[in-house]
Amino acid sequence: MVNFKRWLKHVFMPPWAWRRAFPQATLDAIEAAIRASETRHGGEIRFAVENCLAPGRVWRGLGGRARAIEVFSQLMVWDTAHNTGVLIYVLLADHDIEIVADRGIAARVPAAEWARVTHIMESHFRANKYEAGALAGIDAVSKLLEQHVPPGAANPNELPDRPTILGK
């Protein structure tokens, strides 16, 4: 069954709305936080923001989690030497945050820990503190990666640190 209210949110979401939540300075801060964090662990973090989904995809019931898994694949977060990539995906129209971890880390970190990270971010986002929420989320993911995936002797930066804005 189609959620008409959700569909309308996606149809009428202004294409520039992501810039209010994630202006250039915030994107720069996210990139710097990811770069700094990846020196402390053997994981790779990607941060992606999507304003809204295509109306037809919403009509057919595509949810945030399924879309995050698609983005995980599209951004090739799975393509790291030790399968320790983590995607933080934000779908603004739905106020949804999803974390998708590759199999090398997903097996080590319980789902409740990822949910805790999303709750931290959501509390900031509800107060329109997107930069603070994004940085808190990156910090929390980094601490989990530090705990479960210490850096090796060679710790290359395998994925871009710059946040990705989808559907600009």
Architecture overview:
Strand 2 and strand 3 (96-101) form a beta hairpin. The chain has a single domain, classed as Diaminopimelate Epimerase, Chain A, domain 1 (Roll). The chain has helices at 4-11, 17-21, 24-37, 55-59, 64-74, 103-106, 111-126, 130-148, and strands spanning 44-50, 85-91, 96-101, 164-166. 49% of the residues lie in helices and 14% in strands. The chain is built from eight helices and four strands; from the N terminus they run αααβααββαααβ. The model has no long low-confidence stretch (mean pLDDT 95).
- Number of helical segments? 8
N-to-C series of helices and strands: HHHEHHEEHHHE
Spans of at least 5 consecutive residues with low confidence: none
Q: What structural category do the secondary elements indicate?
A: alpha/beta
Total beta strand runs: 4
What proportion of the residues is helical, as a percent range?
A: 40-55%
Radius of gyration: 16 Å
Major β-sheet annotation: 4 strands, mixed
CATH class: Alpha Beta
Mean pLDDT: 95
User: Judging from the principal axes of the Cα atoms, what is the shape?
Assistant: globular
User: What CATH architecture would you give?
Assistant: Roll
Number of domains: 1
Alpha-carbon distance between the termini? 29 Å
Strand order of the largest sheet: 3-2-1-4
- Determine the CATH topology: Diaminopimelate Epimerase, Chain A, domain 1
Q: Tell me the fraction of residues in β-strands, as a range.
A: 5-15%
Which key features would you list for this structure?
alpha/beta, globular, 4 strands, 168 residues, Diaminopimelate Epimerase, Chain A, domain 1
